[in-house]
């Protein structure tokens, strides 16, 4: 049976897109993969997270809703005066993709409870709905900086409250010269979340070309 990997973050800017690319490449080693970005905001000159994942990996990508302003999707849609689909529609489209791929990697927007539609639906709602019919693995991307333990524990607690057990944590944007806070956080994240650290992704690797990204990404996983 196909599986869904839902990539969420403790906040915006923690490295979800690069983590999504790395997870997609890892899954591609054992089957067919496609990547979905249900909602993208802040479109500038055609740049998008889905496009970046494709550039880094070569994997097929889909983007369902694109909004101009770099805001939460429901806010951006309201300001733009457009209707955006409810989470249930995204779930239906992802289920169709799962019929043709071994793994569908779904990247959220911002943090776990950011509203993806104007009805209040979130990436957590999307994961829970998909889990009714398909195996779903939720991966939490957390930054290494001070404050991440609180953000990670809150995020993981919210996921568990919906009856889902996250697969693990990915630490994004790991600095070349980590300080005391970063080193301690890397040690403490498994303790406070009860989850394994699946990968630690160095800062700046999103600027690599595809060949270098493909070559280096396996070294980031535990």
Automatic annotation (TrEMBL):
Active-site residues annotated for this sequence: 37
Keyword Ion transport among UniProt keywords: no
InterPro entries: DTB_synth_BioD (IPR004472), P-loop_NTPase (IPR027417)
Catalysis: reaction(s): (7R,8S)-7,8-diammoniononanoate + CO2 + ATP = (4R,5S)-dethiobiotin + ADP + phosphate + 3 H(+)
BP GO annotations: biotin biosynthetic process
Keywords: ATP-binding, Biotin biosynthesis, Cytoplasm, Ligase, Magnesium, Metal-binding, Nucleotide-binding
Stored Pfam families: AAA_26
Subunit: Homodimer.
Name of protein: ATP-dependent dethiobiotin synthetase BioD
Gene that encodes it: bioD
